[in-house]
Every structure is written in structure tokens, then in C-alpha cells.
Amino acid sequence: MNSHTSSALLTTSLGDIPLTARGKVRDLYAMGEELLFIATDRISAFDHVLGSGIPEKGKILTQLSHFWFDFVADTVPNHLLASPSAELLAKIAPYESQIEGRSMLVRRAEMFPVECVVRGYISGSGWKDYLATGSVCGIELPKGLRESDKLPCPIFTPAAKINTGGHDENISYGVMVDTIGEHYAAELRRLTFAIYEKASAHAATEGLILADTKFEFGLVDGKIVLADEVLTPDSSRYWPAESYSPGGAQPSFDKQYVRDYLESIHWNKQAPAPSLPDEVISKTREKYLEAFRLITGRSGLEMVR
Ligand SMILES: C[C@H](c1ccccc1)n1cc(-c2ncnc(N)c2C#N)cn1
User: For this UniProt entry, which segments traverse the membrane (predicted)?
Assistant: First the structure.
């Protein structure tokens, strides 16, 4: 059993810690006010979880989240548990070897039902909305933009979480205000821009364009905290600056080998997701490690925490 299958084997609980939420590539277990956030080695592409995992992907992305939580800690507090209870540590001890480095112990937060997306470049669903309406989330953009163009300034483009596992729905800031109130909407927008400014500047020093990213926030003891994973290649678009060329979709820093392979076999997206050749797996793992090294400045995958 390896880590991209282990969470499948821990489908409903980790010992007697019940599964509380399961995403395509992440699992969340809950014990009272303490949660265990596990990143698996599963990889998704074109909204499908593929038949092969990427060894250590969960660990690499978890260590990236730890790095970024620390990097922006003076801007926003986060949901990481400063001191997990002895009871929780005892409960997860039997699984430590499976989840070491790819799990975060976090505090239960009252999550805002909004994904806080910030875009420095026009791409993905933002590009589709721009083509259709000339705007994104009600924000009118200059005419004549090309796909992947850098925007005159970053834009805040929230999305409503769709629990059915479908695509989240881009909403206007006004709808966000109606949903969570003006105070929290304004504060989450401010924090989103502040974090993006710091993170994109750091990424740029390492030759990476942070094109866009998605944050999730919650309330712990009435205070806003940054939650979920943060600034990982799964929650962000990272592009290599050296090959940046607006006018079309940019190569994904981490998933391009997978995408190219799936295109090469003319995969019918209605069919079960295929497994990946060893070469695609190993090259993709190398890209995740490269992102880790560039962003953290660490040569190996020694744990941040
Ligand atoms: C979307 C995400 C998710 C993660 C893993 C698997 C499926 C979904 N999620 C995060 C929470 C959550 N709830 C309460 N407190 C928290 N600190 C967090 C966090 N992070 C609920 N869902």
C-alpha cells in the first residue's frame, strides 16, 4: 500500500477518527475541534483523478503549504494547530509512517462558503468569462486582452463552493457581500490581495509566475484564519517565467507531462481515467520537487514541519 492508495483504504475513518470531507486528492478527518488534513499522492487532470499516483506528491504539497503558511504568517494567522492534543497524537500514531509529512493537524474553523481567487493573469475560467462578457466576476477588463495576458492589476474573483464536487461558480463581489456580509467580504478581499502580493513577488524571484491562486478562510475563536492548502500547484497556476508567452494557454508547471500524455492517447474524458506511464509519473514528480526547491530554497524534501 502506498500513500496514493492508502487514503482509499482509509475511506471512512483513520482508526476511529471519522472522515469528515474527501476531495479529489485530499482527505479530512475530524476529532472534535481538531482536524487531520491529509494530502494523498493522487493527481487529477481535466477534473478527473487519474489511475496512478505521483510518489511523494502529498508530502511535497503539504510541505509547500507549511512553507507558505509561515511565509505569510505576519499577514494572516492560519488554522495550523500549535499544540495538538495528546489524545489526537495517540490516535494517529499507528498511521504516522503512512501520513508523515503529508498531513496537517489543524483547528476546526467555521469555513466561509466562498473561494477567494486572485488573478494576476487572465486564464482558465477567467479567460472563458472574459471571452463571453468582457469581464470576470462583474469586473470589466480592458478590451483586446490575449489569453494568459498579465492584467493591469490583480483582480479578486471569488467563487461559490459547489458541494456536489462540480466546478465552483464565479460570483461577483456583490454576491459575496450578500453571502457573508460587507465586513468579512472586504477583509477577505484585502487579505487575498496582500497574500498574493507577497507570494507572487517571492515566486518571481525564483523564475515562477504565480498567475492565480485560491485561498479558503475560516473563523477560529471569531478571528479570520487562512485555511485549507495554500499556494500549492494544486490550488494555484504556476508558470515558468522563461517560457511565458501570452496569446494562448501556458504550460502547467506541474501537470503538463500528464496533460500531454492524456492528449497523446486521445483519452475520452467520459472513459475511466487511465494510469500513467512510469516516465510521466517520474517526470511529474520531478516537477513537483522542482517547485518545492524553487519556492522554499530547500534542496531536498526535508520537512518544513
Ligand atoms: C475544502 C476542504 C477540504 C479539505 C480536504 C478534503 C476535502 C475538502 N475543507 C476544509 C475544511 C475545513 N473545515 C473546518 N476547519 C478547517 N480548518 C478546514 C480546513 N482546511 C472543510 N473542507
Answer: none
Ligand 1 pocket, residue 160 CB under 6 Å: no
CA of 164 to the centre of ligand 1 (A): 15
CB-ligand 1 contact for 80 (6 Å cutoff) = no
Q: Is the pLDDT of residue 92 over 70?
A: yes
Measured from the CB, is residue 26 less than 6 Å from ligand 1? yes
For the chain, give every domain's residue range.
Answer: 112-243
- Give pTM, 2 decimals: 0.94
Is 225 in a helix, a strand, or coil?
A: strand
Residue 111 CB less than 6 A away from ligand 1:
yes
pLDDT tens column, 129-182: 999 999 999 999 999 999 999 999 999 999 998 765 567 899 999 999 999 999
CA 15, CA 8: separation in Å to the nearest integer? 14
Q: Is the CB of 58 under 6 A from ligand 1?
A: no
User: What is the identity of the amino acid at 287?
Assistant: K
CATH of 112-243, one of 1.20.120.1200, 3.30.470.20, 1.10.579.10, 3.20.20.70: 3.30.470.20
Residue 215 DSSP SS3: strand
C-alpha cell at 86: 495528546
